[in-house]
Design brief:
The chain has four helices and seven strands. It is α/β, with parallel strands linked by helices and 194 residues long. Strand 6, helix 4 and strand 7 form a beta-alpha-beta unit.
């Protein structure tokens, strides 16, 4: 999977150097869900450094981080030869990619369906993200509202699903940076928490 500008920006801001993070008013909105602090803030206003980036993905791993399907660099004939060997991933699956910070690919899209997302897959992916955070002793993550940009999944419903996932045991997870779309005002997030 190739990265795009959002992942590059998130990776830059996800530095382990806390001095690179915004302090004070970051233009976002904060919420407590159990023992986890969720901060909705734009990509240019990181509230804290993160240990893991969560990126949404499709069942064939063709999406780049901005939600677009990209042309692969390999010739189509080479890809056709690989198809029988490439398993199609199930919706809700998460894949850990070792990097700094760690990346977690959350499969919530199937490009052969309309809509491409499934609420059940998003729910399962969120539960699996929490499981991986526990498994890897992750304290902080950054993620965008899944399937919002590519698929139009309602942000308020995503926040409800996130809240449900975070009410379960979360291990060391204490902070979630919800990377807020510039087209959506962060204060709207509060309606799902009231």
């Amino acid at each position: 999977m190739r990265t795009g500008p959002v992942t590059e920006a998130m990776t830059t801001y996800a530095s382990t150097d806390p001095n690179r993070c915004a302090t004070g008013d970051n233009g976002g909105r904060e919420f407590e869900i159990g023992t986890v602090r969720v901060v909705a803030a734009g990509v240019d206003a990181p509230p804290f450094a993160v240990d893991m980036l969560v990126l949404e993905q499709d069942t064939y791993l063709l999406m780049v981080d901005d939600g677009m399907i990209c042309e692969p660099p390999e010739p189509l004939t080479a890809l056709a030869d690989e198809l029988p060997r490439q398993p199609v991933l199930s919706g809700g699956t998460v894949i850990v990619r070792e990097s700094r910070p760690m990346q977690l690919l959350a499969v919530v899209h199937d490009i052969e369906r309309e809509p491409t997302w499934s609420e059940q897959w998003i729910t399962l992916a969120l539960d699996n993200i929490v499981t991986e955070c526990i498994r890897h002793d992750i304290e902080s993550i950054a993620m965008r509202p899944m399937a919002y940009r590519h698929g139009g999944f309602p942000i308020n419903r995503f926040i409800e699903l996130l809240r449900n996932a975070l009410t379960q045991p979360t291990g060391d997870l204490r902070r979630v940076w919800l990377v807020w779309p510039s087209s959506y005002h962060a204060s709207v997030a509060g309606t799902a928490f009231t």
